[in-house]
Amino acid sequence: MTAFHKHLKSNAKGELEFEGIAVTDLAMQYGSPLFVLSENTIRENYRRIHRAFADVYPAEVIVCAGMKGNWGLAARRVIVDEGGGGDAFGLGELTVAMLAGSDPRKIVMNGANKSRETIEAAIDMGVLNQVDNADELALVGEVAAAMGKTARISLRIRLPLKSLAEVNYVDARYPEGISPSYWERTFKFGLAPDAYLAAVRIAQGMAGVSLEGCHYHGGIPRRAGFYREETEELVEILGEVKAATGWSPEYLNIGGGFVSERYGAEAPPPVEEYGRVIGRAIVDTCAKHGMKVPALMLEPGRYCWESAGIWVAQVNAKKADPTLANKTWVYVDGNTNEMRDPFDPRCSVHHVVIANDVDREGSEVVDVCGGTCNAGDILAKARELPPMQIGDTLAFLDMGAYNESFACQSNVIPRSATVMVSNGRSTVVRRRETVADVLSREAVPTWLMAR
Amino acid sequence: MTAFHKHLKSNAKGELEFEGIAVTDLAMQYGSPLFVLSENTIRENYRRIHRAFADVYPAEVIVCAGMKGNWGLAARRVIVDEGGGGDAFGLGELTVAMLAGSDPRKIVMNGANKSRETIEAAIDMGVLNQVDNADELALVGEVAAAMGKTARISLRIRLPLKSLAEVNYVDARYPEGISPSYWERTFKFGLAPDAYLAAVRIAQGMAGVSLEGCHYHGGIPRRAGFYREETEELVEILGEVKAATGWSPEYLNIGGGFVSERYGAEAPPPVEEYGRVIGRAIVDTCAKHGMKVPALMLEPGRYCWESAGIWVAQVNAKKADPTLANKTWVYVDGNTNEMRDPFDPRCSVHHVVIANDVDREGSEVVDVCGGTCNAGDILAKARELPPMQIGDTLAFLDMGAYNESFACQSNVIPRSATVMVSNGRSTVVRRRETVADVLSREAVPTWLMAR
């Protein structure tokens, strides 16, 4: 038996099973290409990261599973059932969160550029509006006043990351290296510390605004292992803000970036290490400044979703060219319209398994290609894989994050269905798209109709 | 007056007009973000490239305007009205082509990986099926036999580009350089010359298959100015095929790649130069081999669409950080979900015009950002632009190709509407998407509903 993780392994016939169901049976029943999401893998990923922090942290820990990584309604329902929260960008993700039955207290509303309509919705629902800048703070106050309601808010901060100024971080996405300090202090979200302090003072004086949280989402630094330094710097600044204003947050949201092992070349720390180090840094730095330890919010996306999803495609054709190209191409019925994770530097380096014959022997180097017009429509490039045949069912692993959410319809190609599997059961949670769906918004000017 | 091209210029009030309609009026009437397509710019782009070849070429010239660049039904209707054809990838684009009233003789069906269903459709419609490989040829024969119909086919060839073996081509997309010869001979489409010859022989002997064309689509070389060399090599090989088999094509399809000026750092040749050089190379090489000059098919995509489309967004917010980042951000109501042209090395370097005040004086360096979660959601990065204010209407020029067709819905953000303008009239040709549209395929497993 070959086991990829607890719920994904080969059976006695050498077929890949996900939660006890043969992937070839899923492809037969639901067609291909097909996303398959494992309910219990989502649950376990959620529980592990929640426990990693909750076991060591003396106040409440709220895991706001990132909606951007997977905004499926069924996936969200699983998180809600686990008692988890979510981070929503815009009205669409907020809609999914609330349709799935989320506790509004565990939902945060993100964005540097929220519309009035989105702010109204956040106030209506009582979710925490993570305000990006001073103009948005003014707008939130104005909208709350107009509605005669109170807006629960958090302010988003950007950090200088002074202690990391000299570091040059390198990974597959930044092959020439980048300074995490430069990256964090210049990106589009949040308030610099001086502007943050000013915004706290303004918010304290605003009727209709309840200032409850601080939001900081680090990107590169956490991935690169700077989570202790950034957490200490964050809470140090909050200590200064408390000294200046008397205010300290009830909720401290440290964002996401708890990456999975397949993400980069180097293995990230286990999530328990993040929990231990970050938890300790918050507790110690709060103590130093005489601050109450706040409830901790996290926004893990990839961590929750990635390993819970596979994507299944069938081999349609195979072409070898031993003369001019010296290459072999394997063509499948899916394509890179659905493999466009913009945050993964190894986006098309997913592990490929022959689902109908997991342990097939032998190997050949192939390009696994999709059916679009794009010469770059290659799902696995120059990869050494067992020899594949027409009719084989391929499973691409770790496809649960960002691939569906960033999928497009180039060449008017309808997108995959998604099935959820759970303890031997399966059901469609996103129906297969049709050409009629893709074309459903088209119209022709009347003046061109009769020509 | 500032004129960007014939139909896009400022009016007496300093507002940007597209085909005589103020862009601010379009944003007011139809909302934003908004794509705006100019019917007459499409017509003129089509006519210019058609004439560039037809004026110098002694046989029929069929311009198969690339559907992948813009698959809108209204845009297609304009091409049909001009007497143009199209290249379709898959059933979806074929559907658009035929719904728009195309002449099937001018439609080609592309793809390395066509489903049986797609092949059946191409046979039903009588369009030219551009067969990629020997297995597909066998499949086409089998499908045609089962249907009792004749399949019109073309065979796609890949070229060695021997005379370009030593060239190292560099542009913004290939900053380290690439060999056009390596690129062409190893990419996923088509048959190497020896396999091509073998396939011609097989096709000649197949009942139910009418071998009518040869298809070659060059990517990098044409862009880099190797169109004479590749055309000569292509027709030389066809001469050898004729000598060996007696067959020569009725239709010679040389693909697309006739790029616009904004595409790369260096200005490409005018399209008339392509026409003159390529036309001459075909005629001369055919004469050398005693071949009849075939009808010429072209598949220009970007050339037809790019300059015909602008994208309009409103400034929602502005944030300056003179202390930590030393930057200014301008936030608009659109985002890079709709600026994801995968073929343009300068994808987010579109010219930005303040549509309500085209000639505004002064300048500042800003990042123009969208509203998604992605730190890379920057529509114009570190660009020197006139000082912008909340409420300004921005037009991003040259957005008519590949941006709509590759658009995604990340963060559950509905996509723009598209309006067509024509001689002072305007109408919606793609209605604005809603959150309900984006979520229309979602479902929750029954076992999770009652928890």
Number of domains of chain A: 2
Q: What overall geometry of chain A do the principal axes of the alpha carbons give?
A: globular
Q: Greatest interface and its residue counts?
A: A-B, 106 and 106 residues
Oligomeric state of the chains in view: homodimer
Helix/strand structural class of chain A = alpha/beta
Query: What is the distance, rounded to the nearest whole angstrom, between the alpha carbons of the first and last residues of chain A?
Result: 65 Å
Q: Helix share of residues of chain A? A: 25-40%
Q: Which CATH top level class of the largest domain in chain A fits? A: Alpha Beta
In summary, what is this structure?
The structure is a homodimer of 451-residue chains. With 451 residues, chain A is of the alpha/beta class.
Would you kindly provide a written description of the structure presented here, covering whatever features stand out?
- The structure is a homodimer of 451-residue chains.
- Chain A folds into two domains: 3-38 and 307-438, Beta Barrel (Lyase, Ornithine Decarboxylase, Chain A, domain 1), CATH 2.40.37; 39-305, TIM Barrel (Alpha-Beta Barrel).
- With 451 residues, chain A is α/β, with parallel strands linked by helices.
- The first copy, chain A, has 14 helices and 23 strands.
- The mean pLDDT of chain A is 94.
- In chain A, helix 2 (39-54) runs parallel beside helix 11 (271-288) and helix 10 packs parallel to helix 11 (271-288).
- In chain A, strand 16 and strand 17 form a beta hairpin.
- In chain A, the strands form four sheets. In chain A, strands 5, 16, 17, 18, 19, 20, 21, 22 and 23 form a nine-stranded mixed sheet that branches.
- Chain A has helices at 23-30, 39-54, 73-81, 90-99, 116-125, 134-147, 180-186, 193-204, 220-223, 227-245, 271-288, 302-305, 435-438, 446-449, and strands spanning 3-5, 8-10, 16-18, 21-22, 34-38, 61-66, 85-89, 107-110, 128-131, 151-156, 169-171, 174-178, 209-215, 251-253, 295-298, 309-321, 327-332, 352-354, 364-369, 378-385, 393-396, 417-422, 425-430.
- At the A-B interface, helix 3, helix 4, helix 6, helix 8 and strand 16 of A face helix 3, helix 4, helix 6, helix 8 and strand 14 of B.
